[in-house]
Amino acid sequence: MWRSAGVQPEPPPEHPRSAGVQPERPPEPARSAGVQSEPAIETRSRSRARGEIPITPDGRYMVVRGRLWRRSNPELDPDLRALLVKALMEARRAVGRARRSGDAEALRAAGQQVDVAKRAQGERGPVWWSDGAPDYNRRLAKNTPYADWYAALPSA
Q: Rounded to an integer, what distance in angstroms lies between the CA atom of residue 75 and that of residue 129?
């Protein structure tokens, strides 16, 4: 109707990002002083997590919700590590696609791809350290030799 009357509608308001305005970011969460003050404890911030993830003093495990998870081999070449991470992420996306489609065979194949990538990174399979120490992967930190270290961490 407005076309026949020669009336033009108002253009929609410009989106702030297209006008060069960046949205305001929330401030970074404060780091816990107890974790940083201990030089033997390495942590890294994860933007999608609720804070910092403690790394055991020997660098072998990270602790998530009280459980030890083996880290990847730090001796991996950075280019190889990037390639393996890319393969792992693609395999995880394949798992998601298979679950959404309900394809059991594709899910099994994608799960195997995830396992191959994690083994290549050293997160599964034989341990990557050579001092003969046992593997505590997936165990509760409080039930391992890391219990005292873990108990001394500030609570989240």
A: 10
Q: Do 136 and 113 lie in a common domain? A: no
Q: Does a structural domain hold residue 62?
A: yes
Is 136 a member of any domain? yes
What domain range is 91 assigned to?
Answer: 75-122
Residue 121: other Cβ atoms inside 10 A = 21
d(CA 68, CA 84): 22
> How many C-beta neighbours within 10 Å does residue 137 have?
15
Q: Supply the DSSP symbol for 74.
A: T
The interaxial angle of helices 104-121 and 78-101, nearest 10 deg, is: 160
**What pTM was computed for the model?**
0.64
- 138-155 pLDDT per residue, tens: 999 999 999 999 999 987
118 in the same domain as 81 = yes
